[in-house]
Amino acid sequence: MRKNSVKNTRINGEVQRELAQIIRGGIKDPRIAPMTSVVAVEVAPDLKTCKAWISVLGDEKAQADTLAGLKSAEGFIRSRLAKTINLRNTPQITFIMDQSIAYGVNMSKRIEEVVATDRKISEADEENGNEDNR
């Protein structure tokens, strides 16, 4: 099976859906934050390994605790995955913290700061009568 085949894409989607369901309702570890979501899943073509990118709403301590909780519950998650998804092999799951949402929020704040600074400079120039053709 190829990496970007239709079958692999379908398996990725199914594993992502089931993984989110297991994390949301099946794990009772208090370290795992309630606002944990599975952003993406990439199952290897041989179905032996799986990378799961997760996002946690909270501070860095909540993210670290959630990652530790998920790593400790990996065996349970894998067994539940094997029961719900009928695959030749149940993949070994590697959890990776996804920082893209936090990165996007940070970039949005920076863009807003630059726009606000530019707006203040434009207003000051208009008050002083220094208009240049922009």
- Supply Rg: 22 Å
| CATH topology type of the largest domain | GMP Synthetase, Chain A, domain 3
- Number of helical segments with 4 or more residues: 4
Beta-strand percent range = 15-25%
CATH superfamily of the largest domain: K homology (KH) domain
Overview of this protein structure:
It is a single chain. By secondary structure, the protein is α+β, with helices and mostly antiparallel strands. It has 2 domains: 6-98, GMP Synthetase, Chain A, domain 3 (2-Layer Sandwich); 100-134. It has helices spanning 6-25, 60-72, 74-84, 100-128, and strands at residues 36-43, 49-56, 92-97. Strands 1-2-3 form a 3-stranded mixed sheet. Strand 1 and strand 2 (49-56) form a beta hairpin. The longest helix is centred in the last third of the chain and has 29 residues, at 100-128. The radius of gyration is 22 Å and the shape is elongated. The relative contact order is 0.14. The mean pLDDT is 85.
In terms of topology, how is this protein built?
Elements (H helix, E strand, L loop, with lengths): L5 H20 L10 E8 L5 E8 L3 H13 L1 H11 L7 E6 L2 H29 L6
Parallel strand pairs: 2-3
Antiparallel strand pairs: 1-2
Helix pairs in contact: 1-3
Q: Could you name the key traits of this structure?
A:
single chain; 134 residues; alpha+beta; GMP Synthetase, Chain A, domain 3; 2 domains; 3-stranded mixed beta sheet; 4 helices; 3 strands; 54% helix; elongated
Produce a short descriptive summary.
This protein is of the alpha+beta class and 134 residues long.
